[in-house]
Amino acid sequence: MDLFDDLPALPETVALAPGAVLLRAYACEQAATLLQATEAVLAQVPLRHMQTPGGHTMSVATASCGALGWVSDAQGYRYAAHDPQSGRPWPAMPACLVELAQRAAAEAGYADFQPEACLINQYVPGAKLSLHQDRDEKDLGAPIVSLSLGLPAIFLFGGSKRSQRPQRYRLAHGDVVVWGGPARLAFHGVAPLEEGDHALLGRRRINLTFRRVRNPAPGRPKPD
Ligand code: MD3
Ligand code: FE
Questions:
Q1: What is the CATH number of the domain that holds 85?
Q2: Looking at the domain assignment, is residue 5 inside a domain?
Q3: Residue 137, in any domain of the structure
Q4: Is 211 close to ligand 1, i.e. is its CB under 6 Å away?
Q5: What is the pLDDT of residues 17-44, one digit of tens each?
Q6: Which domain holds residue 78?
Q7: 207 pocket-lining for ligand 1 (C-beta < 6 Å)
Q8: In angstroms, what is the span from residue 40 Cα to ligand 1's centroid?
Q9: pTM
Q10: What is the 3-state secondary structure (H, E, C) of 16-50?
Q11: Nearest ligand 1 atom to alpha carbon 134
Q12: Neighbours of 109 (CB within 10 A)
């Protein structure tokens, strides 16, 4: 239990690494609204534990909204326009979430960020995410924007090789991180969530990641 958890966090901007900008407490004021929008999505598309291509069941529960959703099964990881569980399109991305992601991206120097996918990850105590890279997106020139809500987590931020020992950062309720440039392909993960009870979310952490997947936005040259 962290003695600072009950104090309001002060907003500040921290450069974590080249291309990675932490906007601490950026979303605190709107957190209840953002959570409500997220819960409205989750009422339409249930959280589920995906299978990894290696045959493991993820401890994190996931769902998506937006034009594309992230899915994983024995065939691999990919983005799909339909929820494989229902065969229906994913719910639309709520406007308040899109706007938050766009404002944060602009703050970090990425104008006109237009996410196509929002992956919702839910952690309960003990759930973790092993070190991985996010490279299923064709548009690696766009950043990934992440929003953390609920219980704090230890985020592991590694290098371009899995073998590099990761740095540890605490991500708390309302923190937003923009991952672009050289940080975009860094290995990263989340340590097993500690037990706790958050005022708005209870025994949960929800992380939303906003992603540009398919094509570079018009007007931006394709990296080759
Ligand atoms: C750094 N999610 O969904 S968010 C993921 O907290 C994922 O649920 C974590 O990693 C979570 O893929 C971490 C922060 C994050 C997201 C994507 C990144 C950091 C990143 C992509 C590249 C580098
Ligand atoms: Fe990731």
A1: 2.60.120.590
A2: no
A3: yes
A4: no
A5: 999 999 999 999 999 999 999 999 999 9
A6: 25-211
A7: yes
A8: 22
A9: 0.94
A10: EECCEEEEECCCCCCHHHHHHHHHHHHHHCCCECC
A11: 21
A12: 12
